[in-house]
């Protein structure tokens, strides 16, 4: 398909503006590492919230979300729990404040704050850096796979070529060009560039989402949707089996469901809950989400920023997701039935844009989706080099270098990470396979050690190192050993192996320095099993009060998950015109919002006043 001239001009104009803006703020970013990676802790929380939302609005994830709604209907609202999306609830309720109180630059630097400076702490410091880099490489491959599939449908030029016996496909060439442009402005501008461009990108994307939602809402009737989908497609709830048969509608979708491995939906859902609790309690992984938290001015702003992310991300995004899924079901269903098994369902999003979006709006939407991709990609390549430069080069190699030297090495680290990630992207099989590996495999190795670090005083640096190392090895090797088993079903084994690594480290080594533990608990003040540390603190400060908000925090997390789900479901029910369900969801949204206002928001400042 050839884009109209006006659409191409809109896209080119946007890319030029983005690059120039990134270069414009580069002088401010180059003052110091804190300015480069954290924006000098002076960026307002609402800008960081918009930036964080934009960073989560990537093309690969949106393509996946449109695909799963097309295939699974309203039950697709549960599938993003595999990340889990509701970890953001745990973050805004209590983890953002805990993390921000450390005043560090990276997740690896936080390890020193938690475990001290001994050998075990240094090993833990290094293993977190390794995890941060590996996870970033995985996401770069994930982005590479998604952006290539997306843009090749729209641009008419064949950019495929050969390097010896190795062929670079046209979609891979387009991905390389877009990634190269994004890397350029991110290198120069750091966090200032990332946040500034992501706020702009979010505004463009929101307008595009509203337009798509309007097109779908006015173009499709309730009866048309009802005729295009099988029984149970509109049902949010489920039993042990998916019970969704596409025979006679689009037969090849049944094959897609089998390939995804989601037929036993009830068991899959239990796995998501099991994994989600551990992953959410572990806190943000060392990537762009953690970087946004550490960039805020104070813990209260960190909490508000994380809550804002949920609100501004979910509604516009799911208007577009539901809109495209419904348009494709109604107007492309008979055609897809005739194609048999020859259609790649991961290309539903670009196919829908191709067919249903008018000229002019198409350029705006494509610019918005490219903006979403560029924003997410920029966030990752801004966060990972901080670990290599601040936590390896500065800490162990050259602690007294000039700021210009650190910034220069940040540029080199970014380029290195992007190149290695792209090499992995050339060998990725699909967006879905990468999604499952990232969410259930790799993050399974992260969860155990990073839950225990918050809640148990006896969990020492060797336990952290042992758990992270065991988890990384398990998440890397088990998918290769059990190639025919989905990563989701390997998660419990990865988690178990990681817990064994934690236990070995804890009981084969002494507890960490009490002085370090006292400083950590006094400044962070988490709940959990900290009685010996609290007793030591009270020897110096008899008035010290421990954190007793566990029950309230857990209640707010449960309410927050329901609250977040309403922002996902409301746009879906609106687009498919299930108004009775929509009214129920809106009522629940209002009730949960009022409860969170009383039990969480109103208590933020009071919580901070009691710390220390």
Automatic annotation (TrEMBL):
Q: Which reaction does it catalyse?
A: L-proline(in) + Na(+)(in) = L-proline(out) + Na(+)(out)
Spell out the Pfam families in the cross-references: SSF
Cell compartments where the protein resides? Cell membrane
Q: What is its main location?
A: membrane
> Per UniProt, which keywords does this protein have?
Cell membrane, Ion transport, Membrane, Sodium, Sodium transport, Symport, Transmembrane, Transmembrane helix, Transport
According to its record, how does it sit in the membrane?
Answer: Multi-pass membrane protein
Per its UniProt record, what Gene3D superfamilies does this chain match? Sodium/glucose cotransporter (1.20.1730.10)
Q: Does the keyword Ion transport apply?
A: yes
InterPro entries per the UniProt record, alphabetical? Na/Glc_symporter_sf, Na/solute_symporter, Sodium:Solute_Symporter
What parts of the sequence cross the membrane?
Answer: 6-25, 45-72, 78-99, 119-144, 164-187, 199-217, 262-285, 306-332, 364-388, 409-428, 434-455, 462-482, 488-509, 554-576, 582-600
Q: What family does the Swiss-Prot or TrEMBL record give for this protein? A: Belongs to the sodium:solute symporter (SSF) (TC 2.A.21) family.
* UniProt-recorded name of the protein: Sodium:solute symporter family protein
Organism, as annotated: Gilvirhabdus luticola
Phylogenetic lineage: Bacteria, Pseudomonadati, Bacteroidota, Flavobacteriia, Flavobacteriales
């Amino acid at each position: 398909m050839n884009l109209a001239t006006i659409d191409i001009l809109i896209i080119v104009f946007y890319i030029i503006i983005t690059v120039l803006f990134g270069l414009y703020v580069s002088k401010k970013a180059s003052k110091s590492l804190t300015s480069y990676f954290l924006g000098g802790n002076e960026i307002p929380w609402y800008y960081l919230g918009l930036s964080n939302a934009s960073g989560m609005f990537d093309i690969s994830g949106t393509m996946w979300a449109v695909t799963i709604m097309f295939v699974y209907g309203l039950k697709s609202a549960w599938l993003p729990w595999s990340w889990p999306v509701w970890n953001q609830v745990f973050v805004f309720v209590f983890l953002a404040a805990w993390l921000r109180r450390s005043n560090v630059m990276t997740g690896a630097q936080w390890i020193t704050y938690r475990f001290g400076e001994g050998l075990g702490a240094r090993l833990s410091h290094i293993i977190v850096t390794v995890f941060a880099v590996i996870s970033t490489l995985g996401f770069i491959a994930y982005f590479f796979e998604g952006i290539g599939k997306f843009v090749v449908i729209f641009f008419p030029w064949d950019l495929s070529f050969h390097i010896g016996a190795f062929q670079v496909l046209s979609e891979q060439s387009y991905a390389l060009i877009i990634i190269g442009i994004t890397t350029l402005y991110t290198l120069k501008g750091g966090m200032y560039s990332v946040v500034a461009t992501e706020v702009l990108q979010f505004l463009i994307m929101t307008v595009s989402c509203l337009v798509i939602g309007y097109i779908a809402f006015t173009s499709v009737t309730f009866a048309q949707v009802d005729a295009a989908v099988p029984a149970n497609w509109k049902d949010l709830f489920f039993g042990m089996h998916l019970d969704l048969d596409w025979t006679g509608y689009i037969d090849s979708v049944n094959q897609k469901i089998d390939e995804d491995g989601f037929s036993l939906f009830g068991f899959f859902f239990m796995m998501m809950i099991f994994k989600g609790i551990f992953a959410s309690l572990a806190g943000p992984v060392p990537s762009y989400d953690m970087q946004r938290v550490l960039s805020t001015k104070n813990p209260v702003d960190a909490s508000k920023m994380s809550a804002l992310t949920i609100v501004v991300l979910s509604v516009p995004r799911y208007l577009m997701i539901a809109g495209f899924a419904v348009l494709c079901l109604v107007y492309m269903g008979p055609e897809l039935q005739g194609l048999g098994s020859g259609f790649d369902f991961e290309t539903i999003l670009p196919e829908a844009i191709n067919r249903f979006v008018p000229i002019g709006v198409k350029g705006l939407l494509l610019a918005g989706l490219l903006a979403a991709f560029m924003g997410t990609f920029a966030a990752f390549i801004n966060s990972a080099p901080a670990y290599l430069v601040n936590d390896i080069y500065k800490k162990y190699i050259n602690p007294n270098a000039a700021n210009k030297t650190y910034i220069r090495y940040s540029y080199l680290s970014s380029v290195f990470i992007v190149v290695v990630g792209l090499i992995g992207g050339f060998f990725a099989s699909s967006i879905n396979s990468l999604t499952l590996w990232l969410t259930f495999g790799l993050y399974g190795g992260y969860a155990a050690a990073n839950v225990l670090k918050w809640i148990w005083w006896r969990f020492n640096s060797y336990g952290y190192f042992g758990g992270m190392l065991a988890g990384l090895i398990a998440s890397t090797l088990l998918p290769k050993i059990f190639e025919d088993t989905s990563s989701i079903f390997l998660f419990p084994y990865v988690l178990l192996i990681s817990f064994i690594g934690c236990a070995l480290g804890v009981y084969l080594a002494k507890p960490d320095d009490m002085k370090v533990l006292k400083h950590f608990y006094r400044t962070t003040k988490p709940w959990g099993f900290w009685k010996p540390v609290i007793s030591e603190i009270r020897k110096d400060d008899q008035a010290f009060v421990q954190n007793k908000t566990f029950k309230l925090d857990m209640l707010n997390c449960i309410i927050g998950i329901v609250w977040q789900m309403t922002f996902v479901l409301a746009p879906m029910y609106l687009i498919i015109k299930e108004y009775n369900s929509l009214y129920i969801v809106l009522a629940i949204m209002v009730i949960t919002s009022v409860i969170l206002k009383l039990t969480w928001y109103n208590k933020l400042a009071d919580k901070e006043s009691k710390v220390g």
